[in-house]
Amino acid sequence: MHRRAFLQSTAAAGLGLISAAVLPPLAVRAAESDIVDVTLEAKPYLFAPLAGVKFRGFAYNGQMPGPLIRLRQGQTLRARLVNRTGNPSTIHWHGMILPNDMDGVEGVTQQAVPSGADFTYSFKAEPAGLRWYHSHVMPQEALGLFGPLIVDDPKDEHADVELVAVLHDAPDMRSFMAAVKGQSNAPMIGPKDAPEMAMEMGGMHRGHGDMSGMKMPGMSQGDGMKMTMAGGGHGKAGAMPMIAGPMMQGMGDEVAFVARAINGACYPHGKPTLVKVGQLVRLRLLNASPSVTHYVRLAGHKLTVSHSDGNRLPATVEVDVLRLGPAERYDAWFQVGRPGAWLLQAIASDRMAAGQALLLHTPGMARAKPMVPPPLLHGAEVFSYARAGDAIEAGNAPFPGHFDVRQDFVLSGGEGGGGAWMINGKVWPDTPKVHARRGDRVLIRFRNDSDMEHPMHLHGHVFDLVEIGGKVLKNPLPKDTVLVPKGGGTASWAFTANSPPGRWLLHCHNSVHMMAGMMTEVDYA
Fold this sequence. Notes:
This protein is mostly beta strands.
């Protein structure tokens, strides 16, 4: 059956269980148990994804990304964090709806776990879908403390092959810390004709324009060094890894990287995926980058997108390219129609782009020259919220229905190299909070006055994206992270305050912007 017809029929009928044969050993053993026990040991790690690159960061269980945790919806996860980093640490369970004291936010939902100590997180696996976990003590996530988590839905369609692809970028920490201060000279990363790559050449401000003729210099590959940084409100001072590298002309908040990888390796050093003609393949994609919006394309194929942030879309969408802001996830499907070899790649215009790729091939084609996606977006159908949600012009009454709480947030900052990223003119912890009671209907409206998109994330909830760029979505998208358009762009969320009570963080998931103040809370009375 053609992949589109297959997905439409199974989505409508809710048919098909994921076979236990596709689960990793942990989940196979635990499939009939009520409780899944996991230990995650966080400690220093030397990440060497290709020759000449040594990134001294951290990792869970000696691997970057951390191990895939997979369990069935409704099981209880007991995850023991053993902290050997030399600094306080936590684990945030991104996209999960769980007790507030299990959310893993230092100074908000728990005290950070001291180095040498351990802490056990325990919660029921809800909701189903692709989630992930990462440290919420900055900048540990950027240094490697992250990993994927899948909660299986018993109503999911069957896939012959499932591939989890975690896109991650190892930052030059000198550049990263300069970016937090608004003083980085690193360039932007992406296809030359991506919207966010346009800039006004006279003033170096991101705006409208064509960069198709602009050259993007490459980054040098640095070796490891160490720097000492103060805790900055995230624990006592401590030794934090650093990578030395050149500084380049940029916009102040961009980060230079020493490697951009998928699943812990740079092509051609990653593990290839064998597929067979006729098989239905499910890609589960996670952007774990600290700051980069990635454009992902599978050469020679269209992708049928079924889930966003682990949540089923109102209808499947067929695209050429997936655009993932930091922390966003998508599930995309394709059917293998012919023998061959193809790269799944985060397309960009600099020389590091070639390494952020995975090889998929049919039998006997492992050594064949793979088909490579084009480096530009021209002529490609790129996933957008507006298309997936069937957007229409807003008019004068864009949000019918009753809301008990309405909150407007203006996002700003980044101008003049000051390094502050603000919500309503304030930086955390002085930003205005959203106050709600259980059962309230809440509407949060963002206007982004800065020249940078912001991946805004709400902990402990799945909300409905109901408006984007001034257009209402006829079919709201269930999300936990949304890129708010730059230059006066807007986005609106609606949700019912029915998560467990407590303080739920709302922040930009660009680590640079979060560390520089773009963070607030939704607090239950």
